[in-house]
């Protein structure tokens, strides 16, 4: 293929990409509903239970989970879901269980989807033993009208917002997404985000030995959370003499100076630092 031909092809592809971006921007400005392009069929199903539950377990693939106070003493679950990917909802003993019931064949995974399944859970206000959520993709919203003995959320992609009080441990783990905790009352806090943001409000009201933060920055990246903590530039977390910082990874060749710089600043803040000195 001649060089001029390659240039023309590259220019044509570039114009196509630019055209698609302009088209998408124009449609967004006109408030055009992209959900019309979705090739999957959705439906809404509702489940009600007169009896209450002490624990809630949610296991889904892709769905937003919103917990709201119920206007009655019973439980109501509203599932906006794909026709071929419905959820089963049942009360097993004292446990409310919501799980995906996958019925799709391999070729039914092929399609365009601008919509998102959503599970709205209406619970009577009060105290519950445990809330467990495991999902691949989706946001989780837990309001402040409830209290739990324990909360555990594990997701690959999505944002978790929690305002509920927890007498025991709250553990939230996300690969890509964000975690927001506001006015939190908890026995202990364990948060982990690989790529995303952790926003804490009023966590300073709790003893330092009950707070664990898993953060980025073990390689001394200047924009990482650990770097900003070390230099006193983080908005939510400050380090002092009663804190322990553990660098669990080894230095990548070329990052030694950046890591040493961060470690020195951590020591200056008064924090105890555990790291591999052989690096």
Write a structural description:
- This protein has 279 residues and is α/β, with parallel strands linked by helices.
- The chain has helices at residues 3-29, 225-230, 256-268; strands spanning 42-49, 55-59, 64-69, 75-82, 85-92, 95-102, 118-123, 126-137, 140-142, 146-162, 165-182, 186-201, 211-214, 244-246, 272-274.
- The strands form two sheets. Strands 1, 2, 3, 4, 5, 6, 7, 8, 9, 10, 11, 12 and 13 form a 13-stranded mixed beta sheet that branches. A two-stranded parallel ribbon has the order 14-15.
- A hairpin with a 2-residue loop joins β5 and β6 (95-102).
- The mean pLDDT is 84.
Q: Give the number of helices.
A: 3
Topology as H/E string? HEEEEEEEEEEEEEHEHE
Radius of gyration: 24 Å
Mean pLDDT: 84
Helix content: 10-25%
The tally of strands reads 15
Overall spatial form: flat
**Oligomeric description of these chains:** single chain
Question: How many strands, which pairing sense, and closed or not: the largest β-sheet?
Answer: 13 strands, mixed
Termini separation: 50 Å
Q: How large a portion of the residues is in β-strands, by DSSP E?
A: 35-45%
Low-confidence stretches: none
Helix and strand topology:
Layout: H1 3-29, E1 42-49, E2 55-59, E3 64-69, E4 75-82, E5 85-92, E6 95-102, E7 118-123, E8 126-137, E9 140-142, E10 146-162, E11 165-182, E12 186-201, E13 211-214, H2 225-230, E14 244-246, H3 256-268, E15 272-274
Parallel strand pairs: 2-6, 2-8, 3-7, 3-9, 8-10, 9-10, 10-11, 11-12, 12-13, 14-15
Antiparallel strand pairs: 1-4, 4-7, 5-6
